[in-house]
Amino acid sequence: MDQPHISGTAVVITGGLLDSNSAKTAHGLIRVSDRFQIVGILDEKHAGKDAGEVLDGKNRNLPIEKDINDFIAKHGKPKYAIIGMATKGGILPKEFYPGIKMILSHGIHLVNGLHEPLAEIQEFKDVAYEFGDIIYDIRKSKPFRDLHFWTGKVKEITSLRIGVLGTDCALGKRTTSRMLEDELTQKGHKAEMIYTGQTGWMQGAGYGFLFDATPNDFISGEIEHALYECWKNNNPEVLIVEGQSGLRNPSGPCGSEFIISGALDGVILQHSPIRVKFKGMEDYPSDIPDILDEVELIEKLGSKVIALSINTHKMEKDDVEAYRKELSARTSLPIVFPFFDPLDGLVKAILSLKK
After folding, report:
1. Which of 3, 205, 336, 345 could in theory staple to 200 by disulfide, Cβ–Cβ 3.0 to 4.6 A?
2. Residue 15 Rama label (left phi>0; alpha psi -120 to 50; beta)
């Protein structure tokens, strides 16, 4: 997705889902965005609160209002509204239609990261045309002639290539990737995150592609191209690849492409100790693999797991420390809980690979 002109003030639509994993796009934008200036959230369930406090208890001066009319009356009109939640099948439910049309009727452009292209829905097209809006459907592949096949030039790259992969989807891989980029940079090591999903693009990452919108034949080449172009143009010390889904997630197995086609020097593996079933497949007879079993698989695919990153969502501090003790007894790998621990352990593990 290459539309650098899309930037400015924006509200994020979460439709009552702000406190759930379904709003992970909104969560990322609340934490940071270099592309948009996030000015508030539209969420009827949490109206009147601060978005940061709902997310992680940190006030970020981001008001939540129940709809766009209330938001404009209290805070003024933003330039954009961003759909910040995932929906079943990537389709916008009908109950959201009135709110979207209300937003468009104010002359506010819509940024849509769902699979369903909203610019093709006639009733949205009609309102957008009447009020001069643009609906940006960003979950789509590059034009065919801009896509790349894999060539092998990834081996020319001298930057360290680190993947943040996970045992499932919606585990915070992008958040950890972005935190690592910032931490490395603050410590004097130039780093760049390669985005592979729509939220990374919305946050302003400069290089990457939309993994689940790219034709399969070009995924390997797009991984390589993003890494190569970022290295060639910016010469970072570390390239961090945002992972997607999980190697053994039946609804979208993913990760081997990053390891093999991106020739990763190392992997940070993200995991949730309290999640047994793959997200959205609670009735499917397949469990998330043991984290150390996944370490073994990654190493068989040709990369090295250098650290474990643990998602602590819905875990109490005592549970975190108990799991740290249990896992430490089973492995010598560094174990970091990003929202409890400093990231020094991950940084040290990355820099230990320097060529």
Report:
1. 205
2. left
